[in-house]
Design goal:
181 residues; single chain; alpha+beta; eight-stranded mixed sheet
């Protein structure tokens, strides 16, 4: 398996998942405010946190995605994750996803992390298209995507079943030629 790429920004280090991330990941995923638009109920067992970290590792190991643990530069504690899944190499596209602990909201951290991920995706993974499925009620997620040039493409009606009912999801995307411009 290739080494997990480590990305550094002004304030952040994005690195591969580790065993020590299990508790902070659990803390993030148990917060109902964080999980409101995430598509799954808040975690109720540590086993769910372990499965999430296993999934992050599997994405890299099987080369079907790449999702980094977000840490502050001076602290090696997980505060969220960002990166790609559903990587279709043949079509040079992937979906981006992200989650961040509530105490870090509104500080530009996710904007900084997404920029690092997009740079890597377009330049190192040779992606042509990066897409995001965003809950239409999640204004913060829409804003952060639009800051990076993502464009709204349409609504997938009743696309997912969540909390006892179907929900719509909005498709956003940014293309390499648009991102470079």
């Amino acid at each position: 398996m290739k080494p997990f790429p480590k990305l550094t920004t002004q304030r952040l280090v994005l690195r591969g998942p580790m065993e020590k991330d299990m508790q902070p990941m659990f803390d993030i995923h148990t917060d109902p405010d964080v999980m409101r638009y995430y598509g799954v109920k808040p975690y109720d067992t540590m086993e769910k946190s372990k499965k999430h970290l296993d999934w992050l590792t599997k994405l890299h190991r099987e080369e079907i995605g790449l999702r980094w643990i977000i840490t502050l530069k001076d602290e090696d504690t997980c505060i969220g994750d960002v990166g790609f899944y559903d990587w279709e190499k043949k079509h040079s596209r992937a979906e981006i996803g992200y989650i961040l602990g509530k105490q870090y909201w509104g500080k530009g951290i996710m904007t900084e992390a997404i920029k690092a991920a997009l740079d890597y995706g377009f330049n190192e993974m040779n992606l042509n298209r990066i897409q995001a499925l965003i809950d239409p009620r999640n204004d913060a997620s829409k804003r952060v995507a639009e800051k990076h040039g993502f464009q709204y493409e349409g609504t997938f009606r009743d696309y997912e079943y969540e909390y006892g009912g179907f929900i719509d999801l909005n498709m956003y995307s940014v293309l390499k030629r648009e991102y470079k411009a």
